[in-house]
Design brief:
Three copies of one chain form a homotrimer.
Chain A (H helix, E strand, L loop, with lengths): L1 E9 L2 E4 L1 H11 L4 E7 L4 E7 L3 H14 L20 H10 L3 E7 L2 E2 L5 E7 L4 E10 L1
Antiparallel strand pairs in A: 1-8, 2-7, 3-5, 3-8, 4-7, 5-6
Chain lengths: 138, 138, 138
């Protein structure tokens, strides 16, 4: 049971798709199993994070921008892979620091997420992109 | 085959539960399979780390406290999500940097951990918490 | 369906084994399923990253060397776990920041990797090591 979900992004931000993942699980009518998410890119990430206060997402994005600044920032002058733009190598680094795959147990027909857990696509590039996430149930 | 393990935490530290995971696998009498661990929170993490020298855990905790200081630290004045306390947003950030799910193959009825690998719940909050980890075998 | 892949490393670098993973999947003749990779060590990591431009690997290694310097670097004087050498505790920290397990769906008999995604063993120690990665298909 597999599906490829396409998410359109418009710049660096977190894009929630908890609803799509829940719908996929419901449609498959699986009572117990394992949902695996896999993102087919190296400049964006998956992330499970709090989905209550939107400030969490703002701070999350800010933290990673400070930890891995744009490659035209003086502190990043050592970066060699620059020809795809100053947001490219930082995007690869962020995609190493954050999950490319996630596994979530299915319990009683529902995703085993905690009360405050939402599932996000974290876009690390500035330009709009079409991102593919594989949803897979065993 | 699923179980929810509850771990009581008393402040920021690593809490080992390798034994609980091994017991769960043994009880299910699975010869070959996959154990998935999933933590149902956004302010603590799972971690597989060396379980020989306790200094590793001390240094690990220290590294993450320095990488993501408390939000009342001058370097963190940009944080907006502060009303749940100065350890809250840093906890969310650490939970993004460290695993929320882990998959460990089961070989010949045992977890395929390396000799020095232990499984930990890494608590990022200061106050005591009850943390739930889903153990799931396929 | 399981196999242990041994990778010989010669110092800190990324060692690609996408071909080995693809061959393992092909040999098992699985149409649809899930490949799990698990590294049995706490001083090296798995990583899915761009495999087009080799500069990406150079910059990736450099970023992590700067984020987690050798423990004989003045900024790391707080490290206590030093008796296995100045690259040891930093290796444990990098292995916490980067994946120990990865799950990749298998679609139509092939790994569901994106066009530019390669699979790497990221060695964090200076001396040569033999590293074991479990390949597991469900």
């Amino acid at each position: 049971m597999q599906q490829v979900l396409t998410i359109e992004t418009r710049g660096q931000a977190l894009y929630e798709f908890t609803g799509d993942a829940k719908n996929f699980v419901k449609k498959q009518e699986v009572e117990t199993g394992l949902l695996t998410l896999f993102v087919r890119h190296t400049s964006c990430s998956l992330l499970i994070q709090e989905n209550a206060d939107p400030e969490v997402q703002v701070d999350m994005k800010e933290f990673f921008s400070r930890l891995v600044p744009s490659s035209d920032h003086p502190s990043m002058s050592w970066i060699t892979h620059t020809y795809e733009g100053p947001d490219d190598m930082p995007a690869h680094i962020k995609s190493a620091l954050l999950p490319v795959s996630l596994s979530i147990p299915i319990i009683n027909g529902s995703l085993g997420l905690g009360t405050w857990q939402g599932i996000y696509l974290f876009e690390h590039r500035n330009m709009p992109h079409r991102r593919n996430v594989i949803l897979h149930i065993l």
